[in-house]
## 1
Amino acid sequence: MRFLLHFFVLLSAVALTQWFLPWWTLVPIAALVAAILPFRGALSHFAVGFLALAALWGLSALWINSNNEGILAQRIGELFQGLSPMMLIIVTAVLGGLLGALGSLCGYMIAKLRK
Amino acid sequence: MRILKLLIILGITAGLTWALNSNLRLGDSNLPPLGKFFSPFHGFWQNAESTDAFPAGTLDIPGLANPVSVYYDERLVPHVFAESLIDAVRVQGFLHAKHRLWQMDISARSAAGRLSEVLGEQTLEVDRLKRREGMLMAAEKAVEAWKEYPEDFALIEAYSEGVNIWIDRLHPRDYPLEFKLLNYAPEAWTPLHSALMAKSMSETLGSKNQDLEATNTKAWLGSEQFERLFPETFPQQRPVIPAETIWDFEPVPIETPLEADTMPMLEMMGALPYPARKHTPVGIGSNSWALAGSRTASGYPILANDPHLKLTLPSIWFENQLHLPEFNAYGVSLPGIPGMLIGFNEQAAWGITNVGQDVLDWYRIEWEDRANGIYIVDGELLKAELVVEVIKVRGQKTVTDTVRYTEFGPIVYSSPKHPKYDLAMRWIAHDRPQSSELRTFLQFMKANTHEDFLQASYSHHQPAQNLLFANSNGDIALRVSGRLPVKTPGQGLFVQEGNTRANQWNQFIPLEHTPMALNPEQGHLSSSNQHSASPDYPYYFNGYFDEYRGRLVNRLLDKAQNVRVSDVMVMQNNNYSIFAEDALPGMMHWLDSTQLNTNQLGLLELLREWDYHFDAEKKAPALFQVWYHLFYENLWDEFYSQESKHPVIYPENSTTIDILNNDPTLVYWDDLRTPEREGPVELLTRSFIQMSDSLQAELKDPAFNWGKQWKLDINHLARIPAFSMQNMETGGHPEAINAIRNPNGPSWRMIVALGPQLEAYGVYPGGQSGNPGSVHYNSMIDAWMKGEYNKLLFFKDAAEAAERSSSRIEFTTY
């Protein structure tokens, strides 16, 4: 339950702030959410950060790509060693996820330190 | 322990975030900041436009006197409905930026010699050459001159403001994709940027020069051979202005004739100078023609134009319509410049082709001092003006280059091989404009009568163009328009001595003396970059003129009767070449077929059956082109071996064919690389066998044809392959009307049928959007490749626009 709550709070916090803040702020935001809403275990925090950001970045890219009928993803994929549009979306999701996971983990560790 | 773990994780997180926010190098490629680039909220995903989205909405923009409506048709062509010209160009600036901002930015940077600011060291030498050529200086001078025409300058400023209104609205996530890839931000647009675009056009069309190479060649060959191999006129050509034209004016006399011994200067110019010399591309040119009503099915004129330029993505052209109370015009703009360069209004149409007149000459400056700053002109000691050019280089220290300006122009090249002298470049584009320049094309948009056309043409100075005009009254007119120096015969062919003012350009051909024609008896007018006028025109004309396309256009137009638009479409896509028609019979005449094997005889048979059309699906054009090319190299082997010592010029195809057909004993037939002595039979037979050998691999493919041989690349402006269209199989030939030669070709094909039911058709190899993430990025290339056209939607009024458009933006003011 705490996991799901954390997931949605993190996802919405980043989604809302990304429209006006620089891209990298998702890392401190993930940390902040983890510090405010900590639950059990480093691994779980890593996982929730990863899943929330991978979902946000991946689904956003998927949505944009389907409206664009893959035109741009095809071309950008060619720039990156011939990645297919679907692979490009997966790379986007993993990249976002990794940063979210690390941010979340940092936040959790800082929160634990204060106890 | 906990703290140590935390520090490690924090370090990894911070390091990774930092790395993903930085430009990294991976091998040879510069990567954009990957985190930013992949973020769906900031990076490239934001440039992936919905395929069914059209710009729509209401926008408040500052500075408009009245509201402006913009209707987009299904090809994303904006149709601007405004109450005044100044409102229209303000919105036009906004629209050009909206669809082509990165193209505008990089083109202006390239012209100014400021690429290294964003691209780093790799473009430093390109920038250095641009600075030495005085592009930035010339553009600054132009802006100063434009200010003397406040009414026109206000339009240029309004256009710049329109661009900036768009830029100011952009959040970094909205930047065009290329800014994100190269990780820089757009800068504010100014009239100087527009002037740089104009200078860049002058450079493309009016900077061809081979004085250095010609000087070396003449010193090597001697005068007699030089004149034989490099004739200035070509008797079979028909000039742009009909030959029977009478010149009823007194030409400007040349006050100070050149001293015979200063010209031409016959000293070898030494090895390639520094910076490296640019090569002028082959295949830049244009066709345009107008048929009088007597030759058309409708009884009204038809005008056609296809300018041949380097084909790029985004395309150089942008289609738009400007509808005002005082006129209604449709045409193609150069993004960065207000108005439109080629187009039509409700009464008339206009087109342009390049005049090849030589307007760039080189002068040898001999230095009197060790610092190379003092030179003598007519016995007087003069000091060169030193201008320090500051070139910012991304990721490196700023580079400075001191350019020395003499009375003869800036010193562009220097070489340690000749420390005592340098070469100064006199170029027409350095001159302060004598008009607002913008005026010509603004006037064209509202020109209805022949008188309007003449008025508009007078304000056009550079680059010199053949301006073609036709209207619904039935007039067809053509004018060679531009500022051209009065030269003594032979002046400007070779490097001249920069030690006397007698060698300078002291006068210019008065605009009313430039050749023109109105409603000639032949019922058509055309220009395909051939000579402007017959040899009896009272001024010396020399330069770079095409010999074949014009002959074919005239031949076809002479026969044309009851012409319809569809006939003109076929003609613009015509791949027939008089070059092949003139060359192939002579080549086959000398070929000794007894030396050929069965396979080679088969190839010869294909050539015999060929109809001289360079069509993609045919095999013969590939055989011909390779055979001719090898023959050319074998014939002119002396030139290729000379090139290793000094840069030289090479004989034209027309001269080569003249020698092939009429001069079998010329000394050059002998191939000096072989012990035996060759004549036409040996050379053509050998070349044929070499052709069959060199094409052996290709000919194994039964589907091999001209299209597979003559591939076309339409490259992205930053040469990013993923944003380019490469290896497209195409027909065409630079000496055919469909003048395709990689990477140049017909950059816009337009046909306007005048009359009460005006109809216009057009297509260019690109798309209206400059965004590789848009469905409109390259949407017209297929049609262009197939020779198909779009019917241009020319809305009479806002009601028609509202009914037939796909979307609409309302611009309101505050």
## 2
Amino acid sequence: MKAILLFLLMPLCAAAPSRRVVSQVAAEPMARIPGGEFRPFLQPNDQPDIVKVHPFYLDVHAVTNEDYLAFVKANPQWVRSKVSRLYADRDYLRNWAGDFNVGDARILHSPVTYVSWFAAEAYAKWLGKRLPTMVEWEYAAAALPLGMKGVRMSDVILKWYDHPAPKVLPPVESTYKNIFGIYDMHGLVWEWVDDFNSVSTGNGAFTCAATSLDVRNKEDYAAFMRYAFRESLKATYTVGCLGFRCAMDSPGRDANHF
Amino acid sequence: MKHIGFYLLLLACSTGCRAKVTLAPPPAAEGASIYQLPGQWSTQDNRTITLDALLGRPQMVAMIYTRCGAACPRMVAAMKAIQDSLPAPARAATGFVLVSLDPQRDTPEQLRDYAVTKQLDHHWVLLQGNAGEVRMLSMTLDVRYRQLGDGSISHSSDLFILDKQGRVVRSVALQDIDAADVVRTIKSVL
């Protein structure tokens, strides 16, 4: 347990700034996630344990450094040297070489990391999108890898946790595609969700969820790690292994968020 | 700071303790006014304001919802007790703000009724935003909340002291509140 956490807490990427890069970017492609029913890991005692998920759209891969560079160029209040401390801590984009310079060209197509929840939210809004809700994200992430039947998702994820952190964060679409047609839901970076601050009510009850009653499956350490990680976050935090992807409502459908 | 959080998480999980140790600084970073947040809010008088309308006086802020039968009444009572224990000049110069976590049901009318029932005077502002603005403000203050299936909301119960510019100078958990201490904090930013 402790060993797994230590792996998690190690920075997944350590990119050395080297040369200037230029970008020409569009929004990430999206896939339609069909609606369905889902049993969330975290189970409030007084709620039905199945939640209905309406169809929605989700980015096929995480937002890349190249995409994020286009965002800061169009929204200079979000460059590293000018961002408000209300919205991001001091490590914001620390792996970049400068305000408009990703640095290491090898991470251009890797997920942008060292971004706060506020930054992710602003990026999504800029494109007319939004961050996925925690239920949407978990639902999409629970889908099995294409062509892999009879495996347990938690085993797939725990294998990621066991791998040593790569020196350079790999590009998006470098892990697996799932049956919804989206890539890297596990195995590349952690991802912000819109309502990550719904995990805890601030009294620490979740922190030791393995001993708490409202968790679906006490053996599901992979999910436990994810929720515990979210519980430890604040919206201004920027971390080297934490990126994001965007979502959208499916037109004419009920939305999953308020 | 986040590293401390991670280590606490580690520690907590390895020792099986249930209490989360809080070594956190004020949630909003130093020098950053929460009044930078965009968005329009409706008050209990059905006025539309932006948060910077709260500029110029210290404010005590809490995020609550009016149908709450648990923590919120105690949060409001604690704020009222602090208002009552302020000396008259400080009382006249200090604002109290309740932001609803339940913007769908806490309409300006509902907020007005709540203010009347709770006997909140003209130094109090009760705010309804839209769900996105409420979420954004909760992120700024590090208030945690979750809608439950029965229409209630599970939420943290911290109270915040903001200086005249809207910077969080102090956050205090409901169960740890010490009125004399909070009064000192308010006086220090008058």
